[in-house]
Amino acid sequence: MLVLLVGLWVVEALDQLSGNQLDNYGIQARDVDGLPEIFTAPFLHAGWDHLVGNSLPFFVLGFLVLLGGLARWLWSSLITIVSSGLTAWLLTPANTIILGASGLIFGWLTYLLARSLWSRQPGQVALSIGILIVYGGMIWGIFPSGSGISWQAHLGGAVGGVLAAWLLHRRSPRPTYQSAQVSGWRTY
Predict the structure, then answer these.
(1) pLDDT digit string (tens) for 6-59?
(2) Cα gap 44→23, rounded to integer Å
(3) Can you tell me the distance from the alpha carbon of 54 to that of 11, in angstroms, rounded to the nearest whole number?
(4) Strands 97-98 and 185-187
(5) pTM for the complete prediction?
(6) Which of 43, 92, 126, 153 could be disulfide-bonded to 29 (CB atoms 3.0-4.6 Å)?
């Protein structure tokens, strides 16, 4: 996670040096040509303040998801990025560029919270309670608020996080046993 965080800072430095030219690789709302940018937008930010605001939750929540294993981290991140990006692309007014890691951060937040519902492991339940105490206030970010904040990406990320938790941690149904009759005898 530290390498990824440093990467975000390097990308923002390059963006600043280019006169914010990299921001053009953000999601271009409702423009079909803007769909591939769903995969680049989470790694771009609208200036240093935006990046600073995302850095700590990006590192902490991403690290906590990564503790569950690289494969689960990759899948939960991919599901969240796609869900966040598509939601932002669809619901944001046209001619708007969306960028930033907050959709992914919201996905990791809800993934960690929802994961405990399906796994029911005491350690994960305790972790989700701690996360809720520290980062629970972020959940309000899924509702429309100030201009310049993509609540659409936050909402899509939150939905993606819950979906990822369900896909990666749901319990398979318990097998059902049916009795069979053999020559008048029931066996169990």
Answers:
(1) 999 999 999 999 999 999 999 999 999 989 999 999 999 999 999 999 999 999
(2) 7
(3) 14
(4) unpaired
(5) 0.89
(6) 92
Task: Report residue 124 as tokens.
Answer: 């994960």
May I ask the CATH class of domain 2-170?
A: mainly alpha
Burial label for 37, CB within 10 Å (0-12, 13-18, 19+), is buried
For residue range 48-85, what is the model confidence (pLDDT) as tens digits? 999 999 999 999 999 999 999 999 999 999 999 999 99
Domain map of the chain by residue range?
2-170
Please name which of 154, 68, 43 lies closest in space to residue 118, comparing C-alpha atoms: 68
